[in-house]
TrEMBL record, chains A, B:
Pfam families to which the protein is assigned, alphabetical: DNA_processg_A
The organism's place on the tree of life at top rank: Bacteria
GN (gene name): dprA
PANTHER family per UniProt: PROTEIN SMF (PTHR43022:SF1)
Signal peptide: none
InterPro entries associated with the record: DprA, DrpA_SLOG
Smf/DprA SLOG domain: residues covered: 83-301
Family: Belongs to the DprA/Smf family.
Protein name: DNA-processing protein DprA
């Protein structure tokens, strides 16, 4: 039973973290570090009393007088948003990996908290795959993203992406299309939707999945906030698939985070003439990413050992492939047109007559040769292969 | 100076090897082994006197009475063909690797000799790259093969392939188109050309490069002979590029040989929806092949260390990418429309006013912001990125 002071503690912690999320840019590694050292409430106290380090105070101090954490929480609740923090039952432990991972582009550390919209729970994300790629994707890219999303969703995996145009929206739709769970991690406050063209999509995702952000309501997306957001996409997933990415794509930043978190990174190739696939090709070439061509291959990479072991892709077997080399040699020596006697077949094949006879009998059993008019010839079945 | 008995020796060796090439299927590992142990002339003697192992004698014995090695050599010379054997100055030493490599599909060992057509020499092949792939290639595959061949040929590398439809012919043409040397390794006797549609192409290759075969004139191509031929393509080259290959493509057999010979294997990806690229994707995925997207990347793999080191593919750098995260934060806080005063920018950015001022001055120097009407706004240059 949680005592009222226990509830007060949790609420105080939540308010402190809301405060911090309002005064610091998301993914500020110094804020994450100080919060881990001092605790959220102590850090807020120090900021208020100017007792934190000078540069921290300068940053946070400029905004601090203007923040209203309680009001923001109340207004968020009205909008159907909640602020989830470490210690809450639904806090996803997969984010802990961010504590140890080195910063990238001056963004790093676990989030102080997450604003969440949707009836599902963050801790349902134990089996999630991130699917990312270019906004300006080709239909090859979006078709592939949707197909892979549908396959992994059918297998019970949640699909995580960034709610953007191109690959992201295809991944979300591919998952929802088979009734799967999808999570959109945004780089702005959840009171609005960017891009505006995705209002309906994000509403649908909130209804069947989750929409998540490190940014408080009222925050607009910026390039830094996209970079910060990408680490969350990578950290919430078991592994990341990059479907299409040009050489300077934001998806490569997400790929970089996947590596930092020691999670499997996968890339879907495309035509080498396509600039949209060049970023993926570079990742595969460097060894950073494993080449995958389907959802099944993705599952083989991220799945439990042995569970999704695929057979090597094989074309349908043909009868003649099951023949020994020697039998193939005999078969090659049998004419199409005018039948040849056994010794003629033996000579063409370069083998003894006894062995040729045995071989021809076997081939006749396989239906590949027939004897007529004093000689052997190939059957229609043999010619069909 | 070679004495007349020395010349007789060489001629006797040549005749013995022609004999063996006429009685054994190419790439018969037993023949290669016995020839290495006993020498060609001793092996022929034993075959003639039935002193070789029973199965060997059975095979060779059936054909032996019918072969006429001197006549074949004379007729070959009339056709402009020569039979090159180990010990000849032009014998390519890169084929020696086949002695140690384990057999594959019951084909193996170095060739007993090679029938050659063309004024170039086999020992010019110290720097050669094999380019192989599907006969039923797409234009994506043939365009890519031709482009890669042109690039490596321009850099002085010979291009080796199999003279077939599809990827092979594109590789040969791509090389010849830039005046490069190309070698077609065929699976039949060089008195004719298969496919018949490539008579002119093979004539052109013989004129500017070389046409090579393990098969004596009069021999038709068979599946086993294609398998035997593939090991020669791999063995004559420093490395092999597979451009397009379905999952049951002969090119995968050549790829397998490349691995057995410990030479670099490279694969060109394509759309994952294309069955024509599925074989290549499987090779890359398994780690057997390195993904390459261009001739330059091929050269980086096969070239001498450091000679062809490529820069990571980069998009053209933009001014804002050279900014620190802090300057980007300031830039993000500057409005597009109505100018904002310095303290307003500072508050939006969440930093101190002194630092905001410094940042804005820097950005003004970069031409990204301008001060007018009492405030800061973004310049057109900033908006263009």
């Amino acid at each position: 039973m949680t005592s009222s002071s226990g509830l007060d503690d949790v609420q105080a912690e939540r308010l402190a973290r809301v405060t911090l999320s309002l005064v610091f840019e998301p993914g500020d590694p110094r804020a994450a570090k100080l919060c881990a050292e001092l605790g959220a409430r102590e850090l807020v106290d120090r900021l208020r009393s100017d007792r934190a380090a000078a540069d921290i105070t300068t940053d946070a101090g400029t905004r601090l007088p203007f923040v209203e954490p309680e009001r923001d929480l109340e207004r968020a609740a009205v909008m159907g948003l909640r602020f989830v923090i470490p210690g809450d039952p639904e806090w996803p432990t997969c984010l802990d990996g961010l504590a140890a991972a080195p910063p990238l582009a001056e963004r790093g550390g676990p989030p102080l908290g997450l604003w969440v919209r949707g009836a599902r729970r963050l801790d349902e994300l134990s089996d999630a795959i991130a699917i990312v790629g270019s906004r300006a994707a080709t239909t090859y890219g979006t078709d592939t993203a949707a197909r892979i999303a549908g396959t992994v969703a059918t297998d019970g995996w949640a699909v995580i992406s960034g709610g953007a145009y191109g690959v992201d929206q295809a991944a979300h739709r591919g998952s929802m299309g088979v009734g799967g769970m999808t999570v959109a991690v945004m780089a702005h406050g959840l009171d609005r939707t960017y891009p505006a063209g995705h209002v309906d999509l994000v509403d649908a995702i909130a209804e069947r999945g989750l929409v998540v952000s490190e940014l408080a309501p009222g925050s607009a997306p910026t390039r830094i906030r996209f970079l910060a957001r990408n680490r969350l996409i990578a950290a919430l997933a078991r592994g990341t698939v990059v479907v299409e990415a040009k050489v300077r794509s934001g998806a490569l930043n997400t790929a970089n985070w996947t590596g930092r978190l020691h999670r499997p990174l996968m890339g879907v190739p495309g035509p080498v003439t396509s600039a949209f696939s060049a970023g993926v090709h570079a990742l595969v070439r460097s060894g950073a990413a494993t080449l995958v061509t389907s959802g099944d291959e993705v599952l083989e990479v991220v799945g439990r050992v042995g569970e999704h072991a695929l057979a090597e892709p094989r074309a349908p077997e043909r009868v003649r492939d099951r023949l020994t080399v020697r039998l193939q040699q005999v078969l090659d020596a049998v004419p199409v047109g005018r039948p040849a006697p056994t010794d003629g077949v033996a000579r063409t094949a370069g083998i003894g007559i006894v062995e040729a006879q045995r071989g021809l009998d076997k081939l006749e059993q396989h239906g590949l040769v027939s004897f007529a008019e004093g000689g052997w010839r190939l059957t229609d079945a043999a010619l069909a292969h």
